[in-house]
Amino acid sequence: MPDTSKTVSRGISGGVHTPRQHDSGHKHVSGEALYTDDIAEPRRMIHLYVAMSPHAHGRIDRLDVSAVRAAPSVVDVITLDDIPGTNDASPFAMDDPIFADGVVEYAGQPLFAVAATSRAAAVKAAARADLAITPMDAVLTIDDALAANTDLEPPQIMAKGDSAKALETADRRLSGTVRMGGQDHFYLEGQIALATPGEDGDMDIVSSTQNPTEVQHIVAHALAIPAHSVNVQVRRMGGGFGGKETHPALFAAIAALAARKTGRPAKLRVDRDDDMIITGKRHDFRIDYDVGFDDTGRIQAIDLKLASRCGRSMDLSNAINDRAMFHSDNAYHLPHATITSRRLKTHTVSNTAFRGFGGPQGMVGIERVMDAIAHDLGMDPLNVRLANLYSPDGSQTTPYGMTVADSISHEIMPDLAKSAAYDARRKAVDAFNRENRWLKKGLALTPVKFGISFTTKHLNQAGALVHVYQDGSVHLNHGGTEMGQGLFVKVAQVVAETFQIDIDRVKITATTTEKVPNTSATAASSGSDLNGKAAEAAALTIRDRLTDFASEMYDTPQDRITFRDNLVVVDNREIPFPDLVKQAYLNRMSLSSTGFYATPKIHYDRETHKGHPFYYFCYGAALSEVVIDTLTGENRVLRVDLIHDVGKSLNPAIDLGQIEGGFIQGMGWLTTEELVWDAKGTLKTHAPSTYKIPACSDRPPVFNMRLHDGENREETIYRSKAVGEPPFMLAISVFNALTDAVAATADNTHLPDLDAPATPEAILTAIEALGSKG
User: Fold this and answer.
1) Parallel, antiparallel, or unpaired: how do β-strands 592-598 and 461-468 relate?
2) Would the N or C end of the chain have less CB density within 10 A of its end CB?
């Protein structure tokens, strides 16, 4: 495929590298954007409610739904016995039943579904079920799971060099532990599916999903029909963040089972409380470290032990925990490293994908190590970080054996430190802390290095379908899904650029399995990389056909035919793009093409944990300044300065929006978003009243963002880089700044054991612990 990275727009409206508003932005704010629940309800549609287990672990002794079925307005009850195919909604491990079978393994696990003429009637009727469950012992925490050895798979070990020997001979040595909690996705639009039965056993599904193909497969398996009989469509989601990668399949399958049994359209819309109880979260982690280093702060060896709470089933925990291992180095060279990962089953909801996919957890661990080294040596933490960065000469490898050939952290971090006046502000923070007894400030500048690609190799592929109509308008369809991140407008810009036409001529259409089959989830920050390249391939095929046609039609060499400014220029003759398209149609030329793209250069051996799992890395750095109230634990982020690397941006406006949103979401994970289960395994934080996401007032009053001026070394779409996940981890600087502020309460005599999220309670606990150390 030709390298189009040097193509420059010459007068078209909305080509690549130009800021362009989100294609649905005006619809979002006006209420015109149609989501699944906005679709006009079909005649005789039924509403569904899912009845859930009240116990975290137990044996189902009796489940009688006859009284439910007899309740007013109930059309039917869907149970385990109504599944003609496979009772499974898992992505691959076959361990996540649609309805519990014999035992329940988390509080909130679906037991059956009620179909009624209204959702309220279904909810009321579900309470009539005659249910008896004998409780069994439940494993709920990481520590309990470690003690009980509840590993979902054998512990995974990634090793480089001989860390044990190097630790023994290290100049200095430290050990410690850091913990971080989970996070609810809290998408604006909850889980929802609408299933409509068709002829010949077909089933049409409208789902709020990042993964239409997986929904197609799960529904087909549940109904015992081939995949070609299931069509899944999604025009947009009100947020996903990974929470709609695997879990929508459960709700779509239940809706499809109800539609099949009753012969009526069925909608399953889950309210916020039930959504938070039923669906998985970000994995919470415990990381233990043992690090050896020299007197300059440079790491000589490290042993990292990662343990995560996966929940009742595997879901995507293997890949998520693998990525936590991949990113346990962040931007730092570890000459001798052993990284051990435990993936632990607990009787809580099965945790799942979340923005960063395990990477943030791994990075939090190594950033705590950097602070620990700096504190032990009495050095500025920034200097320790700079001393450990990967070399820019491409001579160093990661713990999984991949050469870091594109490192730019050594450019970004000093640039940010200078532009944001790090040295002066460090002195000002220290002075403030000396002068104030009850308020303490903290400052931290941390880097990000994040690998881009699915680490499951076969997922790194995408398809697209492009039609050019007789009037020169273009229909674009691809396998990516739009969840508010701006993927659709970016891919439309690529197609507009390829044809050199205004973007208004390109129609963005809903993702559907009928047009582009076998799609990967829109995840791993790869949406633009994969689907942009696939759409470009389809558009290039049509453009080449038009070039061939014009060459023959006007007896002109192909190299003298160009596309620019909504024109096709043949020698000195300017032909409007629609006119040439019309002529091509009249001469029976195909104006439709599929496109396909597979990411090159990637490979990985999971048995040895060695390989080249990422096509490239994204880089960034953030400087955060915070203040804490030592009497209440209340904290505020006062200022953020950041630089982020998106290569040669496809759309700077969209990218800056993603960077800001990702940072704030990461800040929420590390400061306010606390998930609490009681001793019985019941989630207590399942609504906005008990679970605090950042509000508008939590946005730092000073927030300076800048895109790094550069382009991708690899041949990505127009030399851009991914932007979805990497900015999330810039917010780790907030957590490290809070740690710095807490340390100031004891005149920096000890490094506090502050865990995430750093809620007021956690900050007060850390301050109290420092006081007890004298």
Assistant:
1) antiparallel
2) C
Compute the distance between CA of residue 335 and CA of residue 341 in angstroms, rounded to an integer.
19
User: What confidence tens digit (pLDDT) does each residue in 262-308 have?
Assistant: 999 999 999 999 999 999 999 999 999 999 999 999 999 999 999 99
Q: Which of 409, 406, 410 is nearest to 394 (CA)?
A: 406
Of these residues, 105, 245, 673, 725, which one is catalytic? Answer: 725
Which secondary-structure segment (H or E) carries 488? helix 487-499
Q: Which of 770, 771, 741 is nearest to 753 (CA)?
A: 770
57-77 core/surface letters (b: 16 or more CB in 10 A; e: else): bbebeebebeebbebebbbbb
Catalytic residue status for 725: yes
Cα 374 to Cα 377: distance, rounded to the nearest angstrom = 5
- Number of Cα atoms under 13 Å in the Cβ half of residue 177: 5
Mean pLDDT of the chain: 97
Locate 273 and state its tokens: 């409380």
Sheet holding 592-598, edge to edge: 506-508, 474-478, 461-468, 592-598
C-alpha 431 chain-centroid distance: 40
* Sign of the Cα pseudo-torsion (110, 116, 122, 128, in order): negative
Nearest to 364 by CA among 451, 280, 300, 446: 446
* CA separation for the pair 490, 486 (Å, rounded): 6
Specify the 3-state DSSP secondary structure of 308. Answer: strand
Residue for token digits 């990516």? Answer: 480
Planar angle of CA 108, 209, 488, nearest 5 degrees = 150
For residue 63, what are the β-bridge partners?
131
Sequence letter at residue 242: G
Residue 754's Cβ-side half-sphere holds a number of Cα atoms within 13 Å equal to: 32
DSSP 632-681: T--EEEEEEEEEE--BS-S-HHHHHHHHHHHHHHHHHHHHT----B-TTS
Sign of CA dihedral 366, 372, 376, 382: positive
Distance CA 400, CA 643 (A): 27
Contact residues for 169 (Cβ-Cβ < 8 A; gap 6+): 292, 300
For 79, the token pair is 């149970």
Q: Quick one: pLDDT at residue 376?
A: 98
> SS3 letters for 555-599?
CCCHHHEEEECCEEEECCEEEEHHHHHHHHHHCCCCCEEEEEEEC
Residue for token pair 């819309």: 269
CB 654 within 8 A of CB 22: yes
User: Which of 195, 193, 191 lies closest to 256 in space, CA to CA?
Assistant: 195
Residues in the chain: 774
| Cβ-contact 315, 246 below 8 angstroms | yes
Phi, psi of 115 (to 5 degrees): -110, 120
Q: How far apart are CA 188 and CA 36, in angstroms?
A: 13
Establish how many alpha carbons lie within 13 A of residue 581's alpha carbon, considering only the half-sphere containing its beta carbon.
20
Phi-psi region of 111 (alpha: psi -120 to 50; beta: other; left: phi over 0): alpha
CB 61 within 8 A of CB 81: no
For residue 16, give both structure tokens.
């690549």
- 481-518 burial, b at 16+ Cβ within 10 Å, e below that, comes to bbbbbbbbbbbbbbbbbbbbbbbebbebbbbbbebbee
Residue 3 has pLDDT above 60, yes or no: no
State how far the Cα of 551 lies from the Cα of 121, in Å rounded to an integer: 67
pTM exceeds cut of 0.90: yes
Report pLDDT digits (tens) over 130-162. 999 999 999 999 999 999 999 999 999 999 999
- The encoded tokens of residue 491 equal 């891919």
Name 157's Cβ contacts closer than 8 Å, sequence gap at least 6. Answer: 338, 339, 340, 341, 609
